[in-house]
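We read letters as residues; the fold follows as tokens. Both lines appear below.
***
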Amino acid sequence: MKSLLEVDSIEKSYDYKIILSNVYLKCETGDIIGVLGKNGTGKSTLLKIIYGILTAEHKFVRIDNKVRLKAYKYKNEISYLPQDNFIPRNFKVSKAISLFIDKKNIKGFYEDSFIQQIYKQKVNQLSGGELRYLEIKLILFCESKFVLLDEPYNGVSPIMIDSINEMILKSSKNKGVILTDHNYKNVLKVANQLYLIKDCSTKKLKNKQELIQLGYLKEGML
């Protein structure tokens, strides 16, 4: 049976300026939801509100018919990749893995040639792209039913992006994934549903051509 994350009636403003209004989206396990929008439209803000680390004037977040005002308290239900790095810089990679990953999943986590290359290093020895890859994999290996990914492709090389997309697609077999990134081409590669934030609200798209019709992309950018 699939799990369901419902987000409805999100209202958020800063200094009396409306950022998000009447925002709605729905994600089931098996879905990869791409949330797109121009700079400053509130994509990251929306993910933080869903996760419960940012307040909103109004919000409705429900996971499997249970209202979650502070979803972050339910680690088995939802996990979140922020834009900023979250692993302490003085940690060894192996320590971060042991703290984040359940013991029964450790073996599978290490079945990755890149992880085998870096696990003895300290986090502060990793490049920005290497660290991002590690963080994404840690989040995707969490036990949660849903994953929120904020700018997962930022600072990552094209080769690593391909591996990240493979991880996202594999994880979506038993998780629901919501991601947002300025690298829209990679979002389009993995997402099976698209939402566009425009005029403070979300619009579920029927196809990617609507990104041009609604002014997010120009002709020839798809």
About this structure: The chain has one domain: 4-213. The longest helix spans residues 158-171.
